[in-house]
Amino acid sequence: MEEKRLIRKQIFAARKQCADEQVEEWSRQLTERVIRLPEFLQADRVMAYADYNHEVMTRFIIEEAWKSGKEVAVPKVVGKDMVFYRLTDFSQLAPGYFGIPEPTEGETVDWTDALMIMPGVAFDRENHRVGYGGGFYDRFLEKHPDTQRVAVAFDFQILDQVPTEPTDICPQIIVTQSNIYRNALPKGGLINE
To answer: Which of 41, 74, 106, 109 sees the fewest Cβ atoms within 10 Å?
Structure first.
């Protein structure tokens, strides 16, 4: 879809402009919001992506989850699917699919009651998501419909509107460094905390 391709190009260019220090600072601000969400506080298990290439850094969320005694798992791409591995230490990660950090060893998990921290290229205020185009999250979530979904993004990744398809599975909550968007709210539902 041409529109999605252009959005990806625009956001990747914006991400490239960010200094490492800026990405880290915003990621820390965003982590503070995520760890105060009731959904995070109540979760015993967190499934988080390992960040890459100026995405929101998930290291801080993972560390907070461990500190709170939560179990953590991260995905590895296997064929057309994502398989989640329990993560107990960052040393388990090494560059994998497209250079994205993936677990090299460990125990696979198939949790049905976990909080997922999901990435995305762009979102709108109604919680629609443009992913990276592989469909991995949509396929995984189709098989795990009860997974609670929180997407993390920088403010510049929130657009007025993004194209959607029937197969898209949207996050229930999007957290940026300055806002929290919940799709249970009326149109444009914005909670400014």
So the answer is: 41
